[in-house]
Amino acid sequence: MPRRLPPLNALPSFEAAARHLSFSRAADELNVTHGAISRAIKHLEEQLDVQLFERGTRSVRLTAIGDPYAQSVREALDLLAAATKSASARHSDKTLNVSTSDGFAGRWLVPRLYRFHQANRDIDVRISTTGRLTTFLADGIDIAIRYGGGEYPGLTSELLTGEEVFPVCSPRLLEGAYPLREPGDLKYHTLIHDGFPIDWATWLRSADVSDVDPKSGLTFDSATFAVESAVQGEGVVLGRTMLVAADLAAGRLVRPFRQALTSASQYFVVYPPRAIHQRKVKAFRDWLLAEISHS
Fold it and tell me: Which of 193, 197, 279, 291 is the most exposed place for a label (fewest CB within 10 A)?
């Protein structure tokens, strides 16, 4: 019996709009116009003779029919993408594509990656640090390390570690004319910023310091560069546990004060559920968890 199939070219538009609950964001992801997304979904609804979205003035939401249908379509597209990837000669089972932030890659992952390579010489690792939240199969990403709340619909998310935030600096700043001995001494030193949500204003307030300008100093859009600036003695940065652990252990950085704030976000290893059946993905996931437990 012939299969009854929907208009297949409309499904990616529907799945993206359902995932984002936004026609505009779906259009951006698929590199088409808002109108193209709207027409594709309207055509799909006409063919199915059902309403998939409730459309508001500035928002859309899935109907009671659209919600489970979106989940089924997402699973079907994932299966199709996985089958296509498997059949494609361009994608080798020996190449592992990892997505993460530049800070985590530069300050934690890359210095340890040689150990994974030593244990898995048949797997070539490619690191992506674009800063954009990967859509995995569409981006050719196998596994990701994400920093957030851990809720990623349709994906497996496993906690790696939590994180504290605290000032760190070069040991040289503990000496000289204005040595760092208490939080108030920060007024004599350069603050280094990297755009992290817990900023200097938040930390200074928690330390009851009011005579330091929390916006002054050096600003980087990369945590890697911000930490390296502190290593070079250019100022004090708010260090994050995972990003400064190696520098603290090696003595390149020190904690001048014990005050720390706990971040609401945590690190997670994230991947599509079926990906764990690939040896390269499981090997990297297991290695990550082992490395974290020994950190």
Answer: 197
**Among residues 239, 2, 216, 208, which one has the least CA distance to residue 107?**
239
Is residue 166 classed as helix, strand or coil in its secondary structure? strand
* Per-residue tokens: 182: 């208490």
What is the residue-averaged pLDDT of the chain?
Answer: 90
Q: pLDDT tens across 136-153, in order?
A: 877 789 999 998 888 888
Q: Are 83 and 50 in contact (CB under 8 A)?
A: no
In this predicted structure, the answer to whether residue 87 has a pLDDT above a threshold of 70 is no
Count of helices and strands (H, E) across the chain: 10, 12
Buried b (16+ CB within 10 A) or exposed e, 191-210: bbbbebebbbeebbeebebe
Do residues 93 and 280 make contact, with C-beta atoms less than 8 angstroms apart?
A: yes
